[in-house]
Amino acid sequence: MIEIEGNGTPKDTGEEKEYLTEDEIFAEEPEFLKTKLEPAEEENGSQFLQPSEDKGVSQALQPSEDEGVSQFLQPSEDEDVSQSLQPSEDEDVSQSWAPLEEGGRQNRKLTEEEPVRPSGKPAGADGRHVPMPDGGYAEEASYRARGDLGTEKASPKNRLEEIEIPEVMLEAAMTQEQPARRDMKSKRKKLPEKKQRDEGVVHSLKEYKDKLSSYRTKKWIRYAVIALLVLVIVLVVSTTVRNWKYTSYSVLVTDTKEDTLSFEYCSVGERILKYGVDSATMTDRNNNTIWNVSYTMQSPAVAVCGSTIAIYDKNGTNICICDETGQIGTVSANMPIVKATVARQGVVAAIMEDGDNTWIQYYDKSGSNISTIKTTIDSPGYPMDLSLSDDGMLLAVSYLYFENGTPKTRIYFYNFGSVGQNQMDNRVSGYEYSDTIIPQLEYLDSSTCVAFREDGFTIFGGAQIPEERKEITVDQEIVSTFYDESHIGLVLNNEDSEKAFQLIVYNKNGREILREDTDFAYQEIELVGNQIVMYNKSAFCVYNLSGIEKFNGSLNDLPRQFFSIGQNRFVLITEDSFNLIKLG
């Protein structure tokens, strides 16, 4: 710490002292500034430095009588103050009195003759002393106190500036503050450059809207890129799985206690229906029982729509209606049943024979007869096949009749809703085909029906009044047909190729999506889970709808029945076991 002795000599005490910052100094007006400078009673040069009776720090700033500095501040005794401030007649006013700049600073050049203040700087160089006519300088503060340099009252900060502090003390104070300031600067967060700060500032509503639009665009671009990457990954994985070829299969479940000779099996989604002459059982794919129903039939047959099943006695009179929860209805017919079909809600339509007449009976699941349609061989013909729409509102029937010895086919559509109530026998539309037989009808959904002809197929569409939408004709002989809810398939005799058969698959609008040659000698074919499954007594073959042969291999056991219950899972029924197998 630097201390000033009585004679003005600085002395280093070796102690450190904390100094107030500029903000802390001006937080409150110092005590020593509260002392007002008042002029002395005598009108001489010393009156400019006389303090009031309550003397404060200003008295400490008065130089002693023996110091040389006072000679610059004290006018002679016999000189009038008003005269002492007047320049001599032969003195150039422009040289003696320089005009003041802002803040009281002089704008004139300093000469070698000008006296120097105790601080070591030329007097008047900083505007804190006013030059006197005798070559001395008086403090500007004393003029302000008297009102000679203006009536404006100095602020505490300005009054601090008017106090002369020795340069040694200032330098020592600055030296003490530098480490502390460096520490504070290091702790402060560095502000960005003005250009950088302006980049984040919104100056107008238009600029805000532009930035918001840009932000949203970038956000959606990011989302689109992420979605695209996810889509690419999904496509790569799905393509790999779809085109993967298997060389073997594994047996997941085997049940050798199963009485496979007394029952028939079929798939109901991923579940398995086992039915016989006295009961039916629904099992999961691990052969665990879900439900069981009992009945008496001589020749049970099954019609399936989704998860709804109609087990009917062919050439008998009983129909048992079930779904995934068990039995939901029973129908007792008054005539022998030739064929039956079922809709998802459990309504049943059946072809029945009574001597020379044939009947179409329509029942709800409680067994109540809704409609009866009588047919003869002449009008409209003999019913070869029938199919209900998924919702049970529409019934399609294919009739065979002869005209001049030529077989012809009629297809009639019946609507059991409000549209068909005012029509005879609820018939809303009909189509005739010459020189062809249509032995098979299949509803794919509630509005799409396929009629398989000898030379192709016809697609009908319409939820109320079905109409002919698409006709597909082929030149080769049709060996087999297959379908699911969205596809229609044909197996053709491939006489002009090395491979015996040709597979053709269409979507339900009639657009071809697959044509593939194969030489697999199959006995049964089906389309399940976008896979074409063929099997014979010793092997099975699987194609996907892209024409990739997923598997072609031998079976270890002689199959009695073989069908798919889902992706790459199959049921193999032999004479003495139930087997669930999986590719891979």
TrEMBL record:
Species of the source: Wansuia hejianensis
Positions of the UniProt region annotated as Disordered: 1-138, 175-198
InterPro entries: DUF5711
SUPFAM superfamilies assigned to the protein according to its UniProt record, in alphabetical order: 3-carboxy-cis,cis-mucoante lactonizing enzyme
Protein name: Uncharacterized protein
Ranges of biased composition (kind: Acidic residues): 21-30
Transmembrane segments: 220-241
Keywords linked to the UniProt accession: Membrane, Transmembrane, Transmembrane helix
Pfam families for the chain: DUF5711 (PF18975)
Coiled-coil ranges per UniProt: none
Comp. bias (Basic and acidic residues): 102-116
Top-level taxon in the UniProt lineage: Bacteria
